[in-house]
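Q: Here's a chain of 489 amino acids. Please give me its 3D structure as tokens.
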Amino acid sequence: MSNTEIGIKSYGSYIPSLRLDRRDIIKSVGWANPGQFAHGKGQRAVCDFDEDTITMAVEAARRVISEDGSTHISALVVGSTTLPFADRLNASVISSALGLDDALESFDVTGSQRAGTSALRLASRLAISTSTSDVLCVAVDQRRGKPGSIVELVCGDGAAALTLGQDDVIARILAHQVSTIDFVTHFRRADQRHDYVWEERWVREEGYFKLVEPVLQKLLDEAQVSAGDIDHFILPCPIARVRETISKRMGINPEAVANNFQKSFGETGAAHSLVMLCDVLDKAKPGEKILVTGFGQGCETFLLETTPLLAKKRAKQPVVLNSAESDHIVPYVKYLANNEQITPDFGPRAEADRQTALSAAYRHSKLVNRLVAGECPTCGTVQFPKSTKCVSPNCNHNGPQEEHPLADETATVCSITTDYLGFSRSPPNRYGMIEFTSGARMTVNFACTDQEEPLVGSQVQMTYRLQDVDTLRNYHRYCWKAQPVKTDT
């Protein structure tokens, strides 16, 4: 690392609120491999039908950049092994939804379960080159396994986001070490959906126990820090007792081993090192040392030290709160359908061609991707969509309007319709009119259709979701939907 002090400035996470009970998996397909019964406890987080790695990355990133903070982001790095596009910059879709500047460096980092820590390394190096702006690092994964497989049982969906910079850091980076070794624990070809997983004992004995410790020891030696000084040890691993064994052999205090959330929402793949880091930052004290490790085709690790600013800049939505959220348990068959493991008969209405006009999508990208309305420069009326004529009856302005983003505003439900006839991958359709705090009105679809219908007059917030998937061309189209604001009861 450079002598320039680089560190984390803000952090946040997003864990979908839907859960899949692992007992349902075992009950349905456990007969095929009785050896998986040991993994049949607890729940795992699952995406709704209109969520994927892009939408989760956007939601995590929205929790770390303020409404005007996007103007201070000079680079975006996204780490994942399950991004939807192989030949389209996924980071560009995310940056568009966040309203980041066009003059932005952006990267997709993939190919290994340590893609999250590799993204953190790239982001930290980019942060060295600028002292006036920050770098946004996002890690996200939605790993899919065959029904009843170890991947399906132990993994969960989720994302974490960090901003890195040189000023006002809450955790400074003290040291970094990495190794690259073609040790195969599992693999997935580019044209396949599911991982092929190798034998657990081999992964534990020859992988974690032999490849992780030398890298960690080299890091501690470089930083001149003893293992006993580590306050928080982060190492994603669903195999029982691996993290505890490594910490014991190295001399790390047992209480330093961080919570891996295996029972509450599962291992979030390439994102899990940073998800666990977010949880540690939720409760760490100033001056504590954090060892963050990612494993996959080698090992990558960081040593961080928290600063007094951490107490003032905690995440608004802690990981523990996210892990406790559970709108409802998803039936296993519906989970399989949402993840295209089975194909239900949705009826003739599902057969419509949903081709996206890419030229029109580009021309209206600000309106669709960032939800940008128009604000009249004369009377201040906000209207959606943006127009050249003010809708206010008391204003005669006819000309260009100023941009007014709506994605971060709350709104009130003016009307709502629940429709069981129109096609939806998760019936019913819900749509209606909402009015933002700025006065703009628009017709929207509502997310979380499995819940009760939101009441007219209730508060909603905007969330980034999949609009639909063009199954003929395999193109994902995104939009903003309204979601009920959760209130403390």
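Q: Can you summarize the key feature?
A: The chain has two domains: 7-338, 360-371+406-484.
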